[in-house]
Specification:
about 80% helix
Length: about 400
């Protein structure tokens, strides 16, 4: 059994990194190739069946990987750069997130036929627009800076916000206190989230105080940082399930906005470990796809994806930017482009496992749905962005 598990773990790493290498050589989207590789290794050939091969290790592996991925997302959120992106980003976050959440939940309920509890959680996750997908897409275009900055920073900021919404809704769904009234549940979730947030801020300040003063040698900074991230996540998760996501995200945000004097360490941490974890999580989740579940929901999935592309995103963006100084042509482009990436799939996979264990109906549909959203949005937006920009007259020629 040990040999078998070692072989499976090695295969997951080889397949994931191999897909990323092929993507680099061919110029294809890495996320699409990892999805294809995982599906072939899982449902098609049956080489990797995570539930069978990993057993009880599957959930903690995904949880810890998501924690590190969200910490990396927090490290990308420097408030100084965010101010340079201007007012449209704030509008897309402050106005767009609530609208996108409610519309996404409505589409999941009426389009995919999910229960309201699952729909509200999935709608919260759908406010995430993948920066790992938008970045490469924008590099192939030559758009006005205002458009590029808005799309890029919307993705960076909304990553942790989508996770926080999912944490809060999961807390409501699984709340088992003596008083299940709305006020009691709200106070309990807010208290746990606040404690987790304060823990993350404290850890961020601690790291940015210790590192510059030489209390941690250079060769130990990466291991110490990783262990602190994992420890903070686990401590908060013990206090209340899934609030560890809040801890690691805010820890990353604090470190992004304070001097660390270890940029080489952070760069290595972000680029090497995160790429490895993203590859592993994506292969595990795509290999876990249940074709029987997908076939049962297939028609409703199409309706949901149609609503997501042609109603949820356009209404969210246009209402958010209403009254702003951004020209209408630029607003229309932003209203069309919203690809989802690895964070949406990873967070969905994590909560799907938890909700299935909790016995909530429709939870098994979340992973296939999230993959459908990723594939459809990458194909629809990735292959049409240049043509849409040209038709709107905002394409300035060949990108970098």
């Amino acid at each position: 059994m040990i040999d078998s598990l070692l072989v499976k773990l090695a295969l997951i790493g080889i397949i994931g990194i191999g897909a990323q290498w092929v993507a680099w050589r061919t110029g294809r989207p890495a996320i699409a190739l990892m999805l294809l590789a995982g599906v072939i290794a899982g449902p098609v050939l049956g080489i990797i069946v995570p539930e069978r091969d990993l057993g009880p290790l599957q959930e903690p592996i995904i949880k810890l990987a998501v924690a590190v991925i969200l910490f990396e997302g927090g490290l990308s959120l420097n408030f100084r750069d965010l101010r340079h992106a201007g007012n449209p980003v704030l509008r897309m976050v402050l106005i767009g997130v609530p609208i996108g959440w409610l519309l996404g939940a409505w589409a999941a309920h009426w389009g995919a036929g999910l229960s309201w509890e699952v729909s509200m959680l999935f709608g919260g996750i759908l406010v995430v627009t993948g920066p790992t997908v938008i970045g490469p897409m924008l590099r192939t275009l030559h758009l006005p800076n205002r458009v590029s900055d808005t799309l890029r920073w919307e993705g960076i900021v909304n990553d942790p916000i989508g996770a926080l919404l999912a944490v809060a809704i999961y807390g409501y769904i699984t709340y088992e206190g003596p008083d299940t009234g709305l006020l009691s549940v709200t106070l309990d979730v807010l208290l746990a989230t606040t404690v987790a947030g304060l823990l993350g801020v404290a850890l961020g300040f601690a790291i940015t105080w210790l590192f510059p003063r030489g209390y941690v040698p250079e060769f130990l900074k990466s291991p110490v940082l990783l262990i602190v991230v994992i420890a903070g996540f686990v401590i908060a998760d013990i206090i209340k399930h899934e609030t560890g996501l809040v801890t690691v995200t805010l820890m990353g945000v604090v470190m992004a906005n304070r001097p660390v004097h270890s940029t080489r360490v952070l760069r290595r941490f972000k680029e090497d470990l995160t790429v490895l974890l993203i590859s592993g999580v994506f292969i595990i989740l795509s290999a876990s796809l249940d074709w029987e579940t997908m076939s049962q929901f297939r028609a409703r999935f199409v309706v949901f994806l149609f609503l997501l592309l042609f109603l949820v995103r356009p209404v969210t963006a246009l209402v958010s930017l209403l009254g702003s100084s951004m020209p209408w042509k630029e607003r229309l482009f932003i209203a069309w482009v919203a690809p989802r990436g690895i964070v949406a799939v990873a967070i969905t996979g994590l909560f799907a496992i938890r909700l299935q264990a909790y016995g909530l109906p429709d939870a098994e549909a979340l992973v296939p749905l999230s993959f459908g959203v990723v594939v459809v949005t990458i194909l629809a937006h990735g292959f049409s962005a240049r043509q849409v920009a040209k038709r709107l007259g905002i394409d300035r020629g060949k990108g970098d």
